[in-house]
Amino acid sequence: MPTVLGIDEAGRGPVIGPMVIAGVTIEEGDEKKLTALHVKDSKLLTPKQRTDLFKKILKIAKDHIILIIPPSEIDFAVRGEDSLNLNWLEARKSAEIINKLAPGKAIIDCPSPNIPDYTGYIKNLLNTDTELVLEHKADENYVVVSAASILAKVTRDEEIAKLKKAYGDIGSGYPADPKTREFLEENWDKTPEIFRKSWKCYSDLAKGKGQKRLKEF
Length: 217
Fold this sequence. Notes:
- The protein has 217 residues and is of the alpha/beta class.
- It folds into 2 domains: 3-165, 2-Layer Sandwich (Nucleotidyltransferase, domain 5), CATH 3.30.420.10; 166-209, Ribonuclease hii. Domain 2 (Arc Repressor Mutant, subunit A, Orthogonal Bundle).
- The protein has helices spanning 31-36, 47-60, 71-78, 86-101, 115-123, 138-141, 143-167, 178-187, 200-216, and strands at residues 3-10, 19-27, 63-69, 105-109, 131-135.
- It has a 5-stranded mixed sheet with strand order 3-2-1-4-5.
- Helix 5 links the parallel strand 4 and strand 5.
- The longest helix is centred in the last third of the chain and has 25 residues, at 143-167.
- 37% of the residues are buried.
- Residues 212-217 have low confidence and may be disordered.
């Protein structure tokens, strides 16, 4: 029976922690099973609803893959290494998921404003004969992509919980969060491995502190 893959990410914007990209494969026609569970875009669900749905989605899914991309790999892309940027990094990870799961169709929540270019980029990385459907807000319009968004978001939240246990209250990890900004200000040079150093809020802080220290000599 033909299979359908949904792909979505969580954590593109935070200055702390990884980005997570998830792929969920179901048999064509099983969308109704996900709909019956009230699966929807993870942003429209509470943390408890997402956690409860995570296990139920895996019971319906034919297969799934969850990729955790650390800050160092994100920085490598954002700084333009290997002709990358954040969108192309996400495209490469999506292609990796498609190649491993080899679905008949893959539906992807497209982060790029240029859908044709993004689609072509992924196609050039594929070794499968997979039909591609890329749309903005696919996580709202396709339940299989909603399922992927839930897997990605729950996994991202688990990774943040691990960081909080290891490093203290880092907040949500997003630059607009006052707790995150306070943690960044106090720990940017103490725990650099958890930060995305290519983010402006980090680089501005590091540059400013460095200049201040030079003036002290």
